[in-house]
Amino acid sequence: MKRDDLLDFYLSGNKYRKLFSLLKSDLSSYGRILSYGGIQSNAMLSIARLAQQKNLPFDYHVRYASPQILDAKVGNFFEARRLGLQLHISSAASDEALGAQLRASIEDDTLFIPQGGASPIALEGVAHLAQEILQWQEANDMEKLFVATPSGTGTTAWYLQHVLGERAQVLTIACVGDESYLGAQMARALPSRYAPTILTTQKSYRFGMPHLDLWAQYEAVLAQGVEVDLLYAPVMLQALVENVGVWREGYLLYVHSGGVIGNATQKVRYAKLFGA
Ligand SMILES: *Cc1c(COP(=O)(O)O)cnc(C)c1O
């Protein structure tokens, strides 16, 4: 397992990679950062951290915010607000409509970050991740290597495979929406000769919805001393278990994509549903 979750407390995992090019840039010509998405999103917390580090106001738009999350004293939203996030609740009919509306409102000094950080700015940081993996692969003489990482927007998996090329095969799973949604998302990124392998599971798991299969995967890795996030990683782990035949002939590297701060609020949902 590659412990990208340890890169930074707030900016952990693939969000650190995706925002890397902005983190190291001088953003002083900007007056604010603007983004949108879910109220519990890991990207939201990471962008809040970026904004705080760069001393920029951060306006974040959501379409729905549950009272429990607004009042919670733990979790992504709570932490993001402490870092300075300013919340706006929109009446847009869909996330796409909200995104389009915000894009139209951008001023010259606005740094707009698309939902989930799905943007070509992600390439530079994800390429660093790929280089680290390739060095490790070479040092350990692992000719046939599979690299597993779960997908939301698919940005991480797509760029990772693009840079790894034929030297290692990325395995991923669509955690938000289905395979065709993920395929369409990926097709919007830069063209590449190499595509990640999208695994599937027998059951379909609705994004963010607690499920005992997923809890079992979470607990299995926890028993080995590593906490993973509850939204993405357990779905990927379930897919890896169900598709052992795909990767059994090679080495398997799991990229820990962070997101553990969000577990505090997700565990409350598990406790409510299953008494976990
Ligand atoms: C954001 C996130 C993902 C999905 O990353 P994409 O690049 O949007 O596919 C996966 N795992 C965790 C823990 C995340 O926070």
In a nutshell, what does this entry contain?
The protein has 276 residues and is of the alpha/beta class. It is built from 12 helices and 8 strands.
What attributes does this structure have?
276 residues, Rossmann fold, 12 helices, binds pyridoxal-5'-phosphate
Structure characterization notes:
By secondary structure, the chain is α/β, with parallel strands linked by helices. The chain has a 4-stranded parallel sheet, with helices on both faces. A 4-stranded parallel sheet has the order 7-6-5-8, sandwiched between helices. Helix 1 (14-23) packs across helix 6. It has 2 domains: 11-117, Rossmann fold, CATH 3.40.50.1100; 121-274, Rossmann fold (3-Layer(aba) Sandwich), CATH 3.40.50.1100. The chain contains 12 helices and 8 strands.
Secondary structure layout plus pairing:
Elements: H1 14-23, E1 32-36, H2 42-53, E2 58-62, H3 67-71, H4 76-82, E3 85-89, H5 95-104, E4 110-113, H6 122-139, E5 145-148, H7 155-164, E6 169-173, H8 179-188, E7 197-199, H9 212-222, H10 233-242, H11 244-247, E8 251-254, H12 263-274
Parallel strand pairs: 1-2, 1-4, 2-3, 5-6, 5-8, 6-7
Helix pairs in contact: 1-2, 1-6, 2-4, 6-7, 9-10
The chain binds pyridoxal-5'-phosphate.
